[in-house]
Predict the 3D structure of the following.
Amino acid sequence: MQVPIRIRFSRKCKRCGLRYPEKEPVCPHCDGLTDEQVRKFKLRHSNELAGNANMGRLLLYVAGLLLVGMVIFMLNKS
């Protein structure tokens, strides 16, 4: 997966909804795609975002379990 670069001056594409540099004349994400391809692109992008959110929640739960384990370990050690 490609890491997005931070775009300082950008605009939101009315067709695909992603941001792109203001100096670009057209959106590089959906330029040249048919409406059906843009629909599939948007669906795939939203699925990736949902997957990333799920991974973040999983990591938060693991960190919480590790913290609880460390607290229990320290209480039993004393």
Observations:
- Residues 17 and 34 are 15 Å apart (CA to CA).
- Strands lie at 10-12, 19-21.
- The chain has one helix and two strands.
